[in-house]
Predict the structure of Prostaglandin G/H synthase 1.
Amino acid sequence: MLWQHLSAFLSFSAVFGAALAPWMAGDLSVSLPAVNPCCYYPCQHQGVCVRVGLEGYECDCTRTGYFGANCTSPELWTRLYNLLKPSPAFYHFVLTHFRWFWDIINSTFIRDTLMRLVLTVRANLIPSPPTFNSNYGYISWEAYANVSYYTRILPPVPDDCPTPMGTKGKRQLPDAQLLAERFLLRHKFEADPRGTNLMFAFFAQHFTHQFFKTSGKMGRGFTKALGHGVDLGHLYGDNLQRQHQLRLFRDGKLKFQVVDGEVYPPSVTEAPVHMVYPPAVPKEKQLAMGQEVFGLLPGLCMYATLWLREHNRVCDILKREHPTWSDEQLFQTARLILIGEGRRHRGSPRPTSHGDLVPSGSAGPARL
Ligand code: HEM
Ligand SMILES: *[C@@H]1O[C@H](CO)[C@@H](O)[C@H](O)[C@H]1NC(C)=O
Ligand SMILES: *[C@@H]1O[C@H](CO)[C@@H](O)[C@H](O)[C@H]1NC(C)=O
Ligand SMILES: *[C@@H]1O[C@H](CO)[C@@H](O)[C@H](O)[C@H]1NC(C)=O
C-alpha cells in the first residue's frame, strides 16, 4: 500500500529530523507524490501556511506576534508579554482568594470596567474580518462575504494530506458511535458535581439553536441562521416571512394563545410556519415558535414560552411609556431589549463582536 510506505517514511523522517527531509523529499519525488508540506502544519502561532513552488511552503505570520520561517521567533512585544503573563495557576489562585478585595471591586465602578476589559480581550481573540470556512483554507472575499457559511478560526486540513489530521493520527477517523460510547456513556447515574440540572442543559440547547442551524439543503458547512449570533432568531424566526407569521401586528406583540388562563405560543393554524413535529401531531396541537425544532422537546418549548411572554410584557411597558409608537417601532424596540436580555441571561454580558448589531460578515459559531 502506497500510504503505508508513505506513513513509514513520515515517521522515519520525523525521527531523523529536518536535516534528512530535503534529501528524502528529493529522492521520493521520483516514485511518490510529494506530500503537501502544509500537511505537517509547520507554521506556529496560527501563522498561515501557503504552498510555494511544487514542494515548498511559506508561513504568513502577519499579526501573529511572531516572525521567522515558521513564525517561531517572538517579536519584542510578544517577548515582553510572555515574560509578564501570569500562569493560569496564578490567575486561579488570585480569583479564588482575597474575597475582601473582590467584594470591593464588585461594589464599585471597577467591576464594570474590569468586565468590559475581560470581554474585549476575549472578543479580540476572534479574527475579524472572519477568515476561513470549510471550503477555503486561504483568505478570500467569498469566505468573508457569503454569510451562508459557518466560518472557522483555523484553516481546514488540506484535501491532499495523508491523514485526516494532516500527517498525524490514523488514516481513518474512528467510528463516532464508538467514541461517544467510550467517552460519554454512563452505566449509572452521577449527580452533576456543580449541582446544576437539566434546566441548564435546556437553556444551553435553546440558546445555541439560534445560531447553530446547520442547513439541510446546502450541507454541513452552511448555516440557516444568517444573523450568526444572538439575534433571538429562535424567538422571531430566521427570516422576515417567518417573523411576520409570528407577529400579532398589534402593540408590537407576538401571537399567542391562552390555555387555562396562561399564555403560550400560538398554534400552527394561527401562525402558519413550518414546525418539525412527529407526523401524528395535528396542526392545531403544534405550537408555532421561532425555531422549527423547538416543538420536539418540552424544555425548549418552555424557554420559548418564557421568552414569548417576556417579549409581550416588554411591549406593554413600552406602549405605556410611548403611546405614540407604531406597532413596528414597539416590536423592533422590544426585540432589541430582548436581545440585550438574551445576552445578559446567558450568564454575563455579551461582547459586541459576536452577534453584534453591526453586520460583521460570516462570523459564525467559530466565535463561541
Ligand atoms: C434532549 C436532549 C437532546 C436531544 C434529543 C438532541 C438532539 C439533537 C439532534 C437530533 C441533533 C441533530 C444532529 C444532526 O444533525 O446530525 C442535534 C444537534 C445539535 N444539538 Fe442537540 N440534542 C439534545 C441536547 C442538546 C443540548 C443540551 C445542547 C446544548 C448546547 C445541544 C446542542 C446541539 C447543537 C448546537 C446542535 C447542532 C445544531 C445545528 O447545527 O443545526 N443539544 N441535537
Ligand atoms: C521550519 O520547520 C521546518 C519543518 O518543521 C524545519 O525543517 C525548518 O528547519 C524550520 N525552519 C526554521 C527557520 O525554524
Ligand atoms: C456582586 O454585586 C452584585 C450586585 O451589584 C450582587 O448581586 C452579587 O451577588 C455580587 N457578587 C458577589 C460574588 O459578591
Ligand atoms: C454561498 O456559497 C454557496 C456555495 O458555494 C452558494 O451555493 C451560495 O449561493 C452562496 N451564497 C451567496 C449569497 O453567494
User: Anything to note?
Assistant: The radius of gyration is 26 Å. The beta strands are 48-52, 56-60, 66-67, 73-74, 132-133, 151-152, 214-215, 219-223, 257-259, 262-264. Residues 106 surround 2-acetamido-2-deoxy-beta-D-glucopyranose (ligand 3) (CB under 6 Å).
